[in-house]
Write a structure and sequence with these properties.
The complex is a heterodimer of chains A (about 375) and B (about 375).
Chain A lengths: L4 E7 L18 E7 L17 H14 L20 E8 L5 E2 L2 E2 H15 L2 E13 L4 H18 L2 E10 L7 E11 L15 E4 L5 H7 L19 H11 L3 E5 L5 H13 L2 E5 L7 H10 L13 E4 L4 H9 L8 E7 L6 E4 L5 E3 L13
Parallel strand pairs in A: 6-7, 11-14
Antiparallel strand pairs in A: 1-2, 3-8, 4-5, 6-8, 9-12, 9-13, 10-12, 11-13, 14-15
Helix pairs in contact in A: 2-3, 5-8
Chain B lengths: L1 H4 L4 H14 L4 E7 H9 L10 E8 L1 H4 L2 H11 L4 E5 L13 H6 L4 E3 L3 H10 L4 E8 L4 H13 L5 E8 L1 H10 L7 E5 H7 L4 H8 L3 E4 L3 H17 L4 E3 L11 H10 E8 L3 E10 L8 H4 L15 H5 L31 H8 L11
Parallel strand pairs in B: 1-2, 1-7, 3-4, 3-5, 5-6, 7-8, 8-9
Antiparallel strand pairs in B: 6-11, 10-11
C-alpha cells in the first residue's frame, strides 16, 4: 500500500495561542496541517484493530499516540496521572453525527470542541481530555486519519491535551462508521460564579453569534437532501472567549450554556422552568445568516430548535450587558453577538418571543426530533 | 431572502391591521384552509392583532391531520413486510395509527426513510433492485404532481420495484363538505395559495356562487394573510361573494397546466376517508388503471382490519371550524404533541399543535420591548 500524504487545510479566522489572544480580526490567517499518513498494514479498520493485540498496538503507536503526542499521553499507561489546582469541572459527551465529514469540520473536531465548550460553560479553563473511539469494521484508514487530524487541529487551537483514551471496533452494521466519546476536566476561573440560581429578572440574554449554522450545514450534506450552499458549521472552541468574558465581568456573568442539540429554545425553556422566571426574546434581534434562514424556510425547520456547535447563550447582569457585547464583538466567536432579550418576572416558566411583525408567541420545548414538513 | 422579507414587513402589517379595524363593523368568521396558514397566523402572533369581531377558524388543510388511521395502518403494514423500504415525508412518521406510528415501526426495525422528494424514492429503488420501495404519497393537490411524476419516471425507466401508497386529498370537496354541515358558521374562506398554484382558481367559482361565500386565494406570510383577511372582510361588509386572488405572485387563474396533466396521467379521482370528518365522495386521488403496477394497494395484499378513530379526539369538529383546539377537554392534558390523541396535535401544521406550541393564556401580560 502506498504511503498516502493527507493534507488538511484548516481555515482559521484567528489563531489562538496562549500568549497571543488579541490578534486583530483583520489578521485572519490559515495554516496548513500537513500530516503524512503513516503506512498501516490494512486499508481499512478490521476487528483485529480493536483486539488489544498487535494491530491495536500498531494503530495506536503510529496513529493516535504519534499525532496527539504530549507528556501525559506519552506515559502510555492505563490512565493519566496529573495534579489539578483549584475548583474543577468535569464533563463528558458522545458524538454520533452523520455525515462525519461536513462543511466546516469533521467529527474529530466536533468531539474535542464539544467537551471543551461544555467545560467552558461551567466557567472552567479546559485542561485534559479523554478520547475514545468506537469504530465500525471496514472504516477506511484514510478517513480515520482525517478524523484524527481534526482532533489534533481542535486540540491545538483550544490548548488542551488528550491524556487517555480507548479504541474499540464493532462488526460491520453494528455502528455507523465512527462514534467518539470525549470527557474532560478543567479548572474553574476564580472569578466565575456560573449557576442558574443566580439568574434574576432584568438580566439580559446574549447570543454570541449566528443561530442554526451547524445543524443546517449538516442537513445540507445529508443523503437525499444535498443542496448547494456556502453554509459551514460553526464548530469551534469557545474556551478563550469565555475566559475573556469572565476575566472582565466576573460574577456578573451569571449563566452560560452552549445551545447544541435542541437549540436555543431548549436552553431557554430549561432555564425558564428551573428559575420560574420569564425569558422574553425578540425575533428581530436574533442574529442569523440569510442563507441559513432561507434553508430553514425551505426545509420547514424552526431555527430556534436547530443545533449549534460554536455558539453560546450568556445571561448577564443588565449593567454589564453592553460591555459584554463590546468584548464579544472583538472576538472571533462573538462578531455577531447581540442582546436578544431579557429575563422577566412576567410569564414565569415560559419563553416568549416577539415576532418580527410585532406579535407574540410562546416558544415551547421541541417534541421529539424536528421532522421536515410535507409542504 | 428578499422575496420573503417584504411579506414580513412590520409597517405593512400595521397598516393592514389598522385597515381591518377600520372596515370591520360586524362579527365575521373566516376559515383559512391550509395548515401552513394556521401555523403562520399563530406563530407570528397575528390572531391577537385582529379585531375582536373577526374569528379565525382553522380548516382541514393539513395533509398529515386528515390522513385516516387506516391509511397509517396500511403504511405501517407495508413497512413491516420483509424486503420493503417505505419512504415518507418526515411529519407523517409521528402520526399514531391504530396500534403504532411509523416512527415506532422504525424503532422496531422497519426500514423507513424520510425523503423530501418522491423522485429520490425512485433512485432508491434503482439502487436496491432486490427490494420493493414504496413511497407514502400523501398531501393535497400540492404534492400530487411530484408524486405522479415519480410514477411516470419509474415506468419510463422500467423501475418495477417501485410503487406508491396514495392518500391524496382534494380541497374543493372538503370545502363543500364543511359548507353543507348544518352547524356551519363560516362566512368566508382563505383558500390555500399553494394548492391554487397547481390547480388554479376555476374550481372555486361554482363553490362561491352556490354557497354565496367569498373565497380569497391567500399566501402564507404575515402580510399575505392580513391582506387576504382584509379582502375577505371588504367583500363581507359589502355583501359580495367573489373569488379573489391575493397570492397573484404565484397563482394564475388556470393554474399550472403541466402539473395538472401529470396528475391526470397517473391519478383518478376517488372517494376518500378524512380523519375526523369521515368519507367524502370524490375527494381524493388514487393511482389509475394505466399505472396499476405502481399502486402499492394492488401490488401487495394489505390484510388489516378497518381501524376506528380515537373517539376522544374532536379533530373533526376542529377541522370543520365548529370548535377551537382549546375547547377540547383533552387539549394540553391527555393530548400533547408527545402523546397525541389525534393527528391535529401531531403535525406542526395541525391546529392543535400550533396552539399548543405557540399560544399561551398569559399573553395579555406586558411584554418588555
Amino acid at each position: 500500500m502506498p504511503l498516502i500524504t493527507n493534507t488538511v487545510q484548516i481555515q482559521l479566522k484567528k489563531t489562538f495561542l496562549s500568549d497571543e489572544k488579541n490578534i486583530p480580526l483583520s489578521e485572519k490567517s490559515s495554516f496548513q496541517l500537513s500530516c503524512p499518513m503513516p503506512k498501516f498494514d490494512f486499508d481499512v479498520i478490521t476487528m483485529g484493530h480493536g483486539s488489544g493485540g498487535l494491530l491495536t498496538h500498531r494503530l495506536l503507536q503510529s496513529g493516535v499516540f504519534d499525532v496527539l503526542k504530549n507528556e501525559l499521553l506519552d506515559q502510555q499507561h492505563d490512565g493519566a496521572s496529573f495534579e489539578l489546582n483549584g475548583r474543577t469541572a468535569f464533563s463528558a459527551d458522545s458524538y454520533v453525527i452523520s455525515p462525519i465529514f461536513f462543511p466546516g469540520g469533521n467529527i474529530g473536531e466536533l468531539a474535542v470542541n464539544g467537551t471543551v465548550n461544555d467545560l467552558s460553560m461551567c466557567g472552567a479553563a479546559p485542561k485534559y481530555l479523554s478520547l475514545s473511539f468506537i469504530i465500525e469494521e471496514g472504516f477506511t484508514m484514510e478517513a480515520f486519519w482525517q478524523v484524527l487530524t481534526g482532533v489534533k487541529a481542535a486540540v491545538q487551537k483550544s490548548g488542551v491535551m488528550i491524556v487517555t483514551g480507548d479504541t474499540k471496533v464493532v462488526e460491520k452494521g453494528k455502528g455507523d462508521q465512527i462514534f467518539i466519546n470525549t470527557s474532560g476536566v478543567g479548572i474553574i476561573h476564580p472569578k466565575a460564579q456560573i449557576h442558574h440560581n443566580r439568574i434574576s429578572a432584568g438580566d439580559q440574554i446574549i447570543l454570541s453569534g449566528n443561530l442554526a449554522q451547524h445543524g443546517i450545514a449538516i442537513m445540507s450534506k445529508r443523503q437525499g437532501l444535498e443542496f448547494e450552499t456556502d453554509i459551514v458549521s460553526d464548530t469551534n472552541n469557545l474556551n478563550h472567549t469565555i475566559q475573556l468574558l469572565i476575566d472582565a465581568l466576573g460574577e456578573k456573568v451569571k449563566f452560560l450554556r452552549d445551545p447544541t442539540r435542541g437549540g436555543l429554545a431548549s436552553v431557554l425553556n430549561e432555564l425558564a422552568e428551573m428559575r420560574k422566571l420569564g425569558f422574553v426574546i425578540d425575533q428581530q434581534l436574533i442574529p442569523m445568516d440569510e442563507q441559513v434562514e432561507g434553508a430553514c424556510e425551505m426545509l420547514g425547520l424552526d431555527p430556534l430548535y436547530v443545533a449549534n456547535e460554536g455558539l453560546f447563550v450568556a445571561i448577564v447582569a443588565k449593567e454589564v450587558a453592553a460591555k459584554a457585547i463590546e468584548i464579544l464583538q472583538k472576538d472571533e466567536n462573538g462578531i455577531n453577538a447581540r442582546i436578544i432579550g431579557e429575563v422577566t418576572e412576567t410569564h414565569p416558566g415560559k419563553v416568549m418571543m416577539k415576532s418580527r411583525i410585532g406579535g407574540h408567541r410562546v416558544v415551547g420545548y421541541l417534541t421529539g426530533e424536528q421532522l421536515p414538513r410535507i409542504c | 431572502m428578499k422575496f420573503l422579507s417584504e411579506y414580513r414587513d412590520p409597517e405593512l402589517v400595521r397598516e393592514y391591521v389598522e385597515e381591518l379595524h377600520r372596515i370591520t363593523t360586524k362579527p365575521w368568521t373566516l376559515m383559512e384552509i391550509c395548515g401552513g396558514q394556521t401555523h403562520s397566523l399563530v406563530k407570528n402572533g397575528i390572531l391577537d392583532m385582529l379585531p375582536d369581531k373577526i374569528t379565525m377558524v382553522h380548516g382541514p388543510g393539513c395533509p398529515v391531520c386528515v390522513t385516516s388511521v387506516s391509511v397509517i395502518d396500511e403504511a405501517v403494514y407495508l413497512a413491516e413486510q420483509p424486503n420493503v423500504i417505505l419512504c415518507s415525508f418526515g411529519d407523517m412518521l409521528r402520526v399514531p395509527g391504530s396500534k403504532k406510528s411509523l416512527l415506532e415501526a422504525k424503532a422496531e426495525g422497519a426500514d423507513i426513510r424520510i425523503l423530501y422528494s418522491p423522485l429520490e424514492a425512485v433512485e432508491l429503488a434503482k439502487q436496491n433492485p432486490g427490494k420493493e420501495v414504496v413511497f407514502f404519497a400523501v398531501g393535497f393537490e400540492t404534492t400530487a404532481p411530484a408524486n405522479a411524476l415519480s410514477v411516470v419516471q419509474a415506468a419510463h425507466q422500467k423501475v418495477n420495484n417501485y410503487s406508491i401508497l396514495a392518500s391524496h386529498v382534494l380541497v374543493p370537496p372538503a370545502m363543500e363538505a364543511i359548507l353543507s354541515d348544518e352547524q356551519n358558521k363560516i362566512d368566508a374562506f382563505l383558500a390555500a395559495g399553494h394548492v391554487c398554484t397547481i390547480m388554479g382558481m376555476e374550481e372555486y367559482y361554482p363553490v362561491a356562487e352556490k354557497y354565496q361565500i367569498p373565497i380569497v386565494v391567500t399566501g402564507f406570510e404575515p402580510v399575505d394573510l392580513l391582506q387576504g383577511i382584509v379582502m375577505a372582510v371588504r367583500q363581507l361588509e359589502k355583501g359580495e361573494y367573489k373569488v379573489e386572488n391575493q397570492y397573484a405572485r404565484s397563482v394564475q387563474r388556470e393554474g399550472n397546466r403541466m402539473a395538472q396533466e401529470t396528475i391526470q396521467k397517473v391519478f383518478e379521482v376517488s372517494d376518500r376517508v378524512w380523519r375526523g370528518i369521515g368519507s367524502i365522495p370524490q375527494s381524493g386521488y388514487e393511482v389509475n388503471d394505466a399505472y396499476r403496477n405502481y399502486n402499492a394497494r394492488l401490488k401487495f395484499t394489505i390484510d388489516i382490519p378497518f381501524a376506528e378513530e380515537n373517539k376522544d379526539c374532536i379533530s373533526g369538529d376542529i377541522m370543520k371550524g365548529l370548535k377551537k383546539p382549546k375547547q377540547c377537554p383533552n387539549f394540553g392534558t391527555r393530548c400533547k404533541p408527545e402523546h397525541p390523541l389525534g393527528a391535529p396535535m401531531v403535525s406542526s401544521e395541525g391546529a392543535c399543535a400550533a396552539y399548543y406550541q405557540y399560544s399561551s393564556n398569559t399573553i395579555e401580560e406586558n411584554i418588555p420591548f
